[in-house]
Design brief:
The protein is of the alpha+beta class. It folds into three domains: about 290 residues, no CATH class; about 120 residues, no CATH class; about 70 residues, Arc Repressor Mutant, subunit A (Orthogonal Bundle), CATH 1.10.10.410. It contains 16 helices and 15 strands.
């Protein structure tokens, strides 16, 4: 029998705010060396008599996310208590949303191998994050620094049919959240986590079978592997005559397999009821329209515009748009109007990306502004320095923050284009390498590339390659004619 997968995804993303969801405690990035339980207060540790207060900025960022995902925004939203009997939330419940969240009935379009697919968004809601548990031997320790941090949960309908589609959706969603400034997107720090619900059914059926919900996947690789494993595993169970039961699963990265954690909870298990300490949240139309006007151009639209307006390939546009800071940098350089968009794209993708990788710095951290890069490219285009020297200058700019022109002048890197001077160097290289010249004259023409390298080395890499290439071809042609004349005699 041929089967198909039915997959829905819940994405939990920490909201980039300065304070927690319901108190004034600062949200501090966990670098691994923070003292435990240092950023807590009576509210986020649920001391008797304390009252929560809604974080307005967290609501704004959640509404922006819902708008970017084409959601309907109800005029009134409610917070709810969700019974949650685990030690990482000291209240014994979580303040979340249920029934009337901030966004409903949205969608995100993705590209798949089979063409475009629309993934429906059931809801976008706001809640508080849990603390963090540490298991040490037979003891479990809890750190509440993260407890109460604002958390967006984005829940899809079961519209995806493969691990590839799930990964594509997750990557596109992360991209949007980073563009909006909602989330840093730093997966290694656990600011975004996935929970995938996977079931399988005979192809062509519309039945929703019992599903396995895989919890706490914190990378695209883990998400893809876990979903792919579950699909294959459930098909194997059904083919062998077994049954799939509704369960919550964990993912073991080292084994590459899921394992049962507990039976799956249902909404009634959480015993939702309206949060008595928080009033209904009214979403004014003027406030909503102000947020809508403040939305940036989203990645999909920006990719299409880069291709249409700047003549880039889809691949180039994808590389540039993947990081909003890079896309902004590129556009700032193009809008200076002195270079072709294609030329700037090549320098950013090939050379600036190389410098970023080597230095471990993001584009905003490099002391090379878009104006400074344009100045450097202009020197290369004008022939003041050659391409290889230009790349060396870029490295120096990234290390020192100096301008390209300053570096070229201080180090005497200006390109040599004087034909008489370069002709003398070419002749000297040919005289010093008679064996290689003989190989060229015998028909091994690729030796010309090696001789070209010797000329560039002799000039400290400052020779104009186009002039050298022409002079070298002229000199070799002359020697070939001399050799032919000698044989004729």
């Amino acid at each position: 029998m041929e089967y198909e997968a039915v997959i829905g995804l819940e994405v939990h993303a920490q909201v980039h705010t300065r304070s927690k969801m319901f108190c004034a405690c600062p949200v501090v990035e966990d670098t691994g060396d923070l003292p435990p339980n240092a950023y807590v207060c009576p509210v986020c540790t649920a001391m008797p008599g304390t009252l929560p207060v809604i974080n307005r900025r967290a609501v704004e960022l959640t509404l922006m996310t819902a708008l970017a995902l084409n959601c309907e925004i109800p005029p009134v939203s409610f917070f709810a208590r969700k019974s949650y009997f685990y030690p990482d939330l000291p209240k014994g419940y979580q303040i979340s949303q249920h029934g009337l969240p901030l966004g409903i009935n949205g969608y995100l379009d993705i590209q798949t191998e089979a063409g475009p697919r629309r993934v429906r968004i059931n809801n976008v809601h706001l809640e508080e994050d849990t603390g963090k548990l540490y298991h040490v031997g037979n003891v479990t320790l809890v750190d509440f620094n993260r407890a109460g941090v604002p958390l967006i949960e984005i829940v899809t309908e079961p519209d995806m049919r493969s691990a590839e589609e799930v990964r594509e959706y997750a990557e596109r969603l992360r991209e949007i959240l980073v563009y909006l400034g909602v989330n840093s997107g730093d997966m290694e720090k656990g600011v975004m986590r996935f929970e995938a619900s996977v079931s399988v059914r005979p192809k062509g059926s519309d039945v929703l079978n019992p599903r396995h919900e895989i919890k706490n996947l914190n990378s695209f690789r883990a998400l893809y592997r876990a979903v792919a494993y579950e699909i294959a595993h459930q098909i194997e169970v059904l083919e062998s005559g077994g049954r799939v039961f509704q369960q919550t699963m964990g993912w073991d990265e080292s084994r590459g397999a899921t394992h049962v954690q507990r039976s799956k909870e249902y909404a009634e298990d959480y015993r939702y009821f309206p949060e008595p300490d928080l009033p209904p949240l009214e979403i004014g139309r003027e406030w909503l329209e102000e947020l809508r006007r403040g939305l940036p151009e989203l990645p999909t639209a920006r990719r299409a515009r880069f291709v249409h307006e700047y003549g880039l390939s889809a691949y180039e546009a994808d590389l540039l748009v993947a990081d909003r800071a890079v896309a902004d940098y590129y556009e700032a350089a193009v809008r200076l109007g002195t270079l072709s968009p294609k030329t700037v794209a090549n320098w950013v993708i090939v050379d600036l990306f190389r410098v970023m990788k080597e230095t471990g710095k993001g584009i905003a951290e490099l002391p090379v502004s878009s104006q400074a890069l344009v100045e450097l490219i202009g020197l290369v285009e004008a022939g003041t320095v050659n391409l290889n020297t230009g790349r060396e200058v870029l490295d120096e700019m990234a290390a020192t923050g100096k301008s390209a022109r300053q570096i070229v002048e201080e180090k005497g890197l200006a390109q040599i284009s004087d034909e008489a001077a370069l002709r003398a160097v070419v002749e000297q290289v040919l005289d010093e390498n008679p064996d290689q010249v003989a190989q060229y004259l015998a028909g091994k023409e690729q030796v010309a590339g090696w001789l070209m390298g010797q000329v560039m080395r002799a000039t400290g890499g400052k020779a104009n390659p186009q002039v050298v290439r022409a002079l070298l071809a002229e000199a070799l042609s002359s020697r070939k004619q001399e050799a032919a004349g000698g044989l004729a005699k």
